[in-house]
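User: Please predict structures.

Assistant: First:
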Amino acid sequence: MRFIFKTSYDQDIRLAKHGGHRFWYGLLLAALVTAPWWLESYGLAQLTFILIYGIVGLGLMLLAGFTGLFSIGHAAFLGVGAYTQAVLAAQGWPFPLSLAAAAGLSAAVGAVVGLPALRVKGIYLGIATLAFGFIVEEVLARWESVTGGNAGLMVGQPQMFGWVADSGETFYFLCLVITVACTLAVLNLLRSPTGRAFVAIRDSEISAQSMGIHLAYYKTLSFAISAALAGIGGALYAHAIRFLSPDQFNIIASIDLLLMVVIGGLGSVHGAFLGAIFLIGMPQAISALKDVLPDTIAQAPGLKAVIYGAVLIAFVLFEPMGLYGRWLKIRTWFQLFPFYRKGLFKRQKAFQKSDRLR
């Protein structure tokens, strides 16, 4: 088991806490960089979608996992970013400018949607974001002169200053660079005073307010940053899917995104990517499962929904910390073996005095 003795504040906020982090994350980055050489085109396309959904998951994780504000209409921000990128790319905008515009417009919309978060919370905030999702879907369907309506909108390839991502490999590297940049940005944000304010709001709004944290400002900022990341993911998603229609950003897509961060592990940057792997890999697993099931079950129209619901219920009941929480338990078991105690991760109902006043 590794013991780390910290002797400075810089050491406490360092991204890589020890040599093991540098080794394993360096190995992961090397594997991702060399992926086009050891993955087939289909596997590379699936890995590209994992990176895209990982960016969206980072935004939703920042909102739900670190600020404690849940959104059931987050696919709307994904749609805003995707359609903004598609429209501007069709007008000849370079990819960096259109990507920045997609992130900026999504952030502005997120700030407006974040205003209800100043007065409502819990299930009422979820209803407000759900209503916003329906509004965006209807606007995308009715604004035919810009979005193409239900007929859809074709999206070209990313291009900037004479360079075009005209192959799966080049587009994968583009997504990889943007994903690494977004991940580093979120990690640095979380160790800054702003990120600590988000966590304080999540743990106790009363305690955070008593420490001088402006709740309205930081809640709105959290919504805006989360929406901006969803807009970046939406811009990449538009180029990956090459065709957009309003039904791609409906309530089902929002539930899938929320399911992604819950199963990945709330309150963890790793959980965003583990949830993205689950979201992309689960349909493949269901397709493989259909081959061994009886035809009456395999051809049932609601099989996918039943499996997703059962998996979510299982995680909520038996592993509320998600996939990353399960990995922490496995890692701790190996570190402490044979002295691992069964109830080490048992959830305790401990509340601060400020929470009891509600």
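Second:
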Amino acid sequence: MNKREAAKEERRRAIIEAARAMIRETGDAALPMRALAERAGVSQATPYNLFGTKRAIVLAVLQDMDAFNRRYLEAPPVTGPLDRILDALDTMAGMYVADPVFYRIVWHALFEEKGADARSEFEFSRRVFFRHLMQTVAEEGLLIQGLSPELLAMQMEQALFGTASAWLFDYVGPDHLQPLIGFNACLILSAATVPAERAWLEAKMRAHHERLVALGLPSEVPEVPEAAKRILGRR
């Protein structure tokens, strides 16, 4: 990275951090751009030049991999590629559980403005991440021969997205988030990996299942929350 690119990345990082701080302080993701630029120490045009739109800044806050990396590196090290996938998912879910108010504000801001585009952009970013991890699994010969790492990465991302959406709209509580994501991941991986890997994946899946049973899942479909009704009504 040359000096110009480094300076650009520094400004981008300053804007993301300023946006994160303002959302926490105000409880709102509206982000007045003049105040955001002042908080980040950049010109008023810089946020638009680097991100294009206010919504892109909010999306960047949600997708901030630096926050994920810091939490991921603090976790105990894992060895195998399947462990790394499950650990990464658990780390992502843990970020939401540890800071639920902040992440709910950000998710709602994206969905209530333009849900379909928010989902598309979020899926693409996470799919790149999961595709890299799944490709490693394939390279080590742990996938059933002929299965596409790209397709499996898409399924992993959708499992994460679907469970996070259920949490966002109060279909499941914060305590359910990590075991649900873990259960779904083990279910997908145990169906896609070679027989030698299935026993321990199934054991992990059963452990997540037992935790979910102990927590008590809803026995019937709840009423659709108002936030979800507003979004569904636009499609």
